[in-house]
Each structure stands twice: as C-alpha cells, then as structure tokens.
C-alpha cells in the first residue's frame, strides 16, 4: 500500500528542464525556497532568463551560476536559506541570492561573503542585472525560443497563479509587509490572460495565491466593483480548469464566493489563515478577534456548499498564550471541524513586533501543545476521510510510479500540502494531469485509496 510521504517539501523546488543546452549556451540553475508565492517569482525570473537565451540547469554542476530564492519569514527558514546558499557555493561557487531574506543583505553576506549579489523580494530587474554581470547572455535568435508557457517549477498539469503582491495587514508576528510592501494587485486582464495561456498549454489546475487573496483589487482607487475577486473568480471559472483558492481571509463578502463553488465553477475549497481562536490571543496577534462569528460564517458556507473543504493553519505557543486560551482553540476545533489543518510552534522573527510581547511560552510547552493540537486535528481528519468511503469522485493524477501506482488528488486536496488518493491497481496506463473517476474504498489519517470506475 502506498502512503503519503511525511517529509514532502512544497517549499523546495528546482527547475524542471525539458531540453538540453546548446553548445556554448550560458546556463543558470535555480533553487527556490519558501512559499508558492516565491515559487512564482522564481518561475518569472527563469522565464525572463530563458527569453534572453540562457539555458536552465537542474543541477549545480551544469550551471554557470546559481540563483537561490530565499525565505526569511522565520528564523528557522533563514537558517535553511543560509544552508542552501552554502550548499550552492560549495557545489558551484557562483551564487546570486534573491527573495525575502535578500531584504537583509548584511545577514547573508556576513555568513557568505563570496556570494556574487544579493537582491530583495520580487526585484526581477536587479536579479537579471546580477545574472548579466556574472554570466553575460549569448542568445541565438534562431535556436533560443521561449516555450509559450514559460519555465515551470511545478508539474505541467498544475500551476500557481499569483494575483497580487504585498499585504495591508499588520499582524505582530509577521514581517511580510516590511519585506514585500503594501498590497499591489495585478490587473484583472493580466491575471486572466496568464491563466488562459496556462490552460492553453495544458494546465488542468490553477492555484490562486497571494498574501491576502480576499483583498485582491481593493487597492484600486477607481475599481468598478467593491470586491474585484468575485469577478476574477467568475472569469477563471469559465476556463475549464480546476480553480483552487488559497490564503483567503474570512471577510464577510467571502460568502459570495461560495455559490461559485456550489455551481462547480470554482473548486469547493478554501484555504483560510485563522491562526487562533481565542479573542485575547488574536488581539495580541493584531488579528480580527471574532472567532464566534467565524463559526457562523463556516456554518453559512457549508449551508450553501455542503461539500466545501476548509483548510487552515494555526500558531500555538504565541506569547502570552495561557492553557485556557489554548484549550479554547481545541474546543473551537471541535466545533469548526476543519478538513485540513496545519500548525506551527511560534518563533520570533527578526523585526516582528511580537518579539517584544511579555510572557513568552517555554519551548517544551509549545511542543506539548503542538502535539495535542495535531492529535485532535488528525482525529478530525481521519473521521472525515472515513466518511468518504464508498463515494464516487473525480481525482487528478499527479504521478504514476514504476509499479503502476497512481498518486492522485481529490478536489479537497491541494498539491503537496494536503493528502493524496492512491490507486494501487489498474492505474499503470494513467498519465499525470488526467482527471479520472474513482470509488473510495479505503481511508487513513490523511489519505484515501480508491479504484477506477
């Protein structure tokens, strides 16, 4: 029986290369750390470089230089970024650093003074300038043709679609607005055209991402509608691909998205960063502190679309979190019955206002609360998946291994962060990107198994 690997890494990607470099072609490697939003930045950088005649290498040895797109959100992520930079320096020696940690260039050069250049997040032109300086372009206009879909760091059947940059929230534990600035939404037409090109190139699933998807377009002074995300979702829903919404803050108007899910235009899936449930904890986070109204909203969403899947992430051990506050979170989980849940133990982040809060929770208490939280989340997940036994559903094939076992996802599962549905028999003829119909015949804590029907 195949199982979902426990160590999946959605935050570590390298370029997927489908062609060989021509003789003498300058080549660039890429390591992309962090969230899917950074992954989109990496794809844009590589697409620009490919258009300028650079080859893309999937390993250090075949590259004239390596770009490391870093994450700087948590101290542990910073340490991992420094490790990745060090590995690239050891294996290649010519390294250009970009991404969120690039907002702290002295931090990087203090640890790795031999890097060629450091640029901050979404500074595409500066990254290109650094590459040009390190490895001058040498394009051949008759050979170096850019594929219509650009360079992808994901399998060709799904793609992340970033609709905005930055964030207007001021959460005390987060420094993203300092790194990436205030909300800046892409034009509706630009997003839709990118989505159309992706679908034309064979993408079957569009994963809509931003720092605050619900706020899309609210930074436009002359917008025609109050909430432009609704119009964008309707238009994306007409393209014939699965459309999955990530990072949706639970503003009241989100209820207007749910009929699109009930009608099959958008996947019945919402990824919502609730973070906590106790009002005092939420206030210390500088987050909306209306957990009870959130439960009302969840009930309203489910009334409109009973099949909706709700995913969220939470922080335990936030400064000042008492045992009573944590217990409120557990009780809230019992009521909310979320389908997919992730949890992080609080970490200080350099520059975050939460660092100065009193009553930091001891590490051993954080770990104990994390274990209790995940035990409850796992039990809820297991019960919800068991309830799917016997159901007929469509799934998308992500991979078929050499033994003929197909790794698939249901509409309730985002790539790499949620569960899988495995087909152990009769799946050898399937191909990645196919959407097939299965009957669920076995369930586990996070994954399902099924047979083709």
TrEMBL record:
Domain Radical SAM core: 153-383
BP terms from Gene Ontology: tRNA modification
The record's free-text note on cofactor binding: Binds 2 [4Fe-4S] clusters. One cluster is coordinated with 3 cysteines and an exchangeable S-adenosyl-L-methionine.
Positions of the TRAM domain: 386-453
Binding residues for [4Fe-4S] cluster 2: 167, 171, 174
GO cellular component, one term: cytosol
Molecular function (Gene Ontology), one example: protein methylthiotransferase activity
Class of this enzyme: transferase
Domain MTTase N-terminal: 26-136
Record-listed E.C. numbers: 2.8.4.4
Binding site for [4Fe-4S] cluster 1: 35, 71, 100
SMART domains noted in UniProt: Elp3
Cofactor(s), names only, from the UniProt record: [4Fe-4S] cluster
Keywords: 4Fe-4S, Cytoplasm, Iron, Iron-sulfur, Metal-binding, Ribonucleoprotein, Ribosomal protein, S-adenosyl-L-methionine, Transferase
Cell compartment(s), UniProt: Cytoplasm
One Pfam assignment: TRAM_2
PROSITE patterns: MTTASE_N, RADICAL_SAM, TRAM
Reaction(s) the record says it catalyses: L-aspartate(89)-[ribosomal protein uS12]-hydrogen + (sulfur carrier)-SH + AH2 + 2 S-adenosyl-L-methionine = 3-methylsulfanyl-L-aspartate(89)-[ribosomal protein uS12]-hydrogen + (sulfur carrier)-H + 5'-deoxyadenosine + L-methionine + A + S-adenosyl-L-homocysteine + 2 H(+)
Role of this protein: Catalyzes the methylthiolation of an aspartic acid residue of ribosomal protein uS12.
PANTHER family tied to this protein: RIBOSOMAL PROTEIN S12 METHYLTHIOTRANSFERASE RIMO (PTHR43837), RIBOSOMAL PROTEIN US12 METHYLTHIOTRANSFERASE RIMO (PTHR43837:SF1)
Family indicated by similarity: Belongs to the methylthiotransferase family. RimO subfamily.
Name of the protein in its database record: Ribosomal protein uS12 methylthiotransferase RimO
Gene: rimO
